[in-house]
Design brief:
226 residues; 10 helices
Length: 226
């Protein structure tokens, strides 16, 4: 085995162990998002093995960035099992349209109100979509990729952390999943699967449709106002 593969495999295994452990702990730590638990476990394992985070990140990031793109495409599998019969499709259309508009325009408007830089305002346009799509949009509109990635990650973590609490009185798992997928993309979809398979599938639907529509209109909108 090439020695260059050893760090990659080590980073992959460390992350995998943290993820599996977080999934197991999720049954007891019901109030803590699985993603947050996994991040804490990764940090703990890096400390145990005396592995510098910068070195770990430089090795793991290219691998998981590529895998994240594949996983986004694989969301077509749970989407195919959704039964849309009996759903109010017209209302669903308006929900998605409002979500994609508010998800980009509201944070951009707040950034503009607080007189933040143009790069920051553009980065906030990617807030409501999952990382592979958001970074593609950021590249098209010439927004800093690092800033866009940070905004996407933080908004997803916050949404996953508070989403289940905010939606605890909602009994329809379809509504819970759709809301979490639309608002907090991949992180929300992970948490929705912890609720039920139905919530997970509708979260995947919200993530995919929101990402597709946002990728179509945001670059056009930015080109018109700049």
């Amino acid at each position: 085995m090439s020695t260059s593969l050893i760090p990659v495999l080590s980073a992959f295994l460390l992350t995998l162990v943290a993820h599996i452990s977080a999934r197991l702990l999720a049954k007891k730590l019901t109030g803590v998002p699985t993603v947050v638990t996994a991040i804490i476990l990764v940090i703990a394992l890096l400390f145990v093995f005396n592995w510098q985070f910068d070195n770990y990140y430089s090795i793991a990031s290219p691998v998981f960035d590529r895998l994240l793109g594949y996983v986004t495409v694989l969301l077509a599998i749970p989407l195919a099992s959704i039964n849309f019969k009996g759903l109010p499709l017209k209302k669903l259309f308006w929900i998605v349209l409002i979500a994609t508009s508010v998800g980009a325009l509201l944070p951009m408007g707040l950034a503009y109100t607080f007189a933040l830089s143009q790069n920051t305002i553009l980065a906030f346009a990617t807030r409501s979509v999952t990382a592979p799509i958001g970074l593609s949009i950021a590249g098209i509109i010439n927004s800093p990729l690092i800033m866009a990635n940070l905004i996407i990650s933080i908004s997803g973590l916050l949404g996953a952390g508070f989403g289940k609490v905010i939606l605890k009185n909602i009994e329809d798992d379809r509504a819970k999943g759709l809301a979490m997928g639309l608002v907090c993309h991949a992180f929300g979809t992970i948490e929705a699967w912890q609720i039920s398979p139905t919530a997970g599938r509708y979260a995947a639907f919200g993530l995919a449709v929101n990402g597709l529509i946002t990728a179509l209109w945001v670059p056009v909108f930015i080109s018109l106002i700049i």
